[in-house]
């Protein structure tokens, strides 16, 4: 169960994918502590680089990521976590996936409707 945390300042890139549809929902980073917490609890926990702390996805919104399967790459410095997403969306901007924009020529276009109102979920 060892991952290589010696690269990227002690972090591993973490790709989160819907276990049924295969859609990539988001990308985050884990340190050793958030990795262990994810494995122990069955809920995806990341390391926030901007806040310098652990955060369980859904701790504010309730939109948790339930772990279904975990894989690592050949170098063991990145992980793919297949999840069941609990809630209408994963993105803090209100979309099902953080990948809701597509490049059209030289312009990024929003390609889907919001799944929920982020202002109602993330009250200031």
Protein architecture, described:
- This protein has helices at residues 32-41, 118-121; strands at residues 12-18, 24-30, 45-48, 53-56, 65-72, 78-85, 101-104, 107-110.
- It is globular and about 40 Å long.
- The chain contains two helices and eight strands.
- The strands form three sheets. It has a four-stranded mixed beta sheet, with helices on one face. Strands 3-4 form a two-stranded antiparallel sheet.
- It is mostly beta strands.
Describe the SSE topology.
Elements: E1 12-18, E2 24-30, H1 32-41, E3 45-48, E4 53-56, E5 65-72, E6 78-85, E7 101-104, E8 107-110, H2 118-121
Parallel strand pairs: 1-6
Antiparallel strand pairs: 1-2, 3-4, 5-6, 7-8
Contiguous uncertain segments of 5+ residues? none
> Overall pLDDT, averaged?
95
Shape: globular
Distance between the termini: 39 Å
What about the largest sheet?
Answer: 4 strands, mixed
Question: Helix count, per DSSP?
Answer: 2
**Helix percent band:** 10-25%
- Order of strands in the sheet with most strands: 2-1-6-5
Instruction: Spell the H/E element sequence.
Output: EEHEEEEEEH
Overall number of strands: 8
* Class computed from helices, strands and strand pairing: mainly beta
Radius of gyration: 15 Å
- The fraction of residues assigned to DSSP E strands is 35-45%
